[in-house]
Amino acid sequence: MLDWGQIDTVLLDMDGTLLDLHYDNHFWMQHLPQRYAEANEISFSEAQALVIRMTDELRGTLDWYCLQYWSDTLKLDVPAMYREIEDRIALRPHTDNFLRSLRAMEKRALLVTNAHPDGLQHKLEVTGIDRWLDVIVSSHDLGHAKESSLFWHSLQERQPFDPGRTLFVDDNLHVLGAARDYGIAHLLCIRQPDSKSPVREITDFPAIHDFDEILETRTKSEAP
Asked: What whole-number distance in Å separates Cα of residue 125 and Cα of residue 138?
């Protein structure tokens, strides 16, 4: 368990951390290729291979996360397509209890996400998690993805925090590496960001499966 007495600020990723990454993985690997195949009269496998190649080329950049970029590139209304499968948007286990606990402990909670504002707003409408957050920051507002050191410097300018007394939780190892390089002292990785995918073996960072593992109210008898 964390020593919450050493933490003032909690920075939280959204997709794969607070929310089940299955929604996004299904969209990019299944739904979008299917709709692109229909629009361009090609096979699903051809469309899927194209989307995979394009996303691999941009991985870790701001364009990778930009719904407007993909709308322009693929000639599709990607934000509208996002809403077609909104029934798959779901909180990860114990997310709501964890966010309420942060409020009870009087920790400053910031959502720091690479999600494009259109997709971000949609997910906030569906889940309502913004009611438990003090600040919401999209990397698109700062001009740099979280994988870049420039993001963390820009975040510090916009929302000052003490890296030595900050906890950051994410599912992306590259993002966690950038946060570590910036000097954030407390880092946690999510072992199973997609509920339909296998649990990952994480060795580079402390890792949890669900948020109940770090809730302050958890009793010793409940600990593993």
From this structure: 16
